[in-house]
Amino acid sequence: MGLREEKKERTRRQIADTAWVLFADRGFEQVTVAEVAAEAGVSEATVFNYFASKEDLFFERLDRYGLSLVDGVASRPAAESPLAAFRRLLLTSGGLLARLDEDPRALDRLRTINRVIAGSPSLRAREQLSFARIAETLAASLPGDPVTAHVVAYSLVGVQRSLVQHVRTAILAGEIPDDLAARAEQAFTLLEHGLG
What we know:
By secondary structure, the protein is an all-alpha fold. It has two domains: 50 residues, Homeodomain-like (Arc Repressor Mutant, subunit A, Orthogonal Bundle); 135 residues, Orthogonal Bundle (Tetracycline Repressor, domain 2), CATH 1.10.357. It is built from eleven helices and no strands. Helix 1 crosses helix 2 and helix 9 runs antiparallel to helix 10. The N and C termini lie far apart (48 Å).
């Protein structure tokens, strides 16, 4: 990566990190893009150069993580199935779900993220769009029949969505989500052996 690209990535990260602090402190709906820009030390136009909407700014991390899952499945070893690769990546690639047992701050971040999403209809809608985009991108990377590729991609992303929903339900009820790895393994085993 050249110096120009590094600077752009730093600016993008600075805007996203600044927005996250503001969203966590005040809620998504109460923060304007102008406030994010001022706090990040950039113009509002600069924010929109990097992010098409405020919702895109919020979901930048989920979108980037989803693309890393897609890239990991696309670059998997030839002997590894898409299901096995997605399972491996989802449970070990550094997402908050994978770090919940290891990183004490991960639970606080999950609480904040889920509280903010639960409080915003536009974020809940954008989250569904994010998962659909991940599934569509994954389907496009899989070989073979397009219908089969879509079934596989949406099933794999469905496991991720189900785990996210399990975590959200637990957190909003004031509980700590437990046994995520075991629940993920159970879901992937169900897919691996067929739903029948």
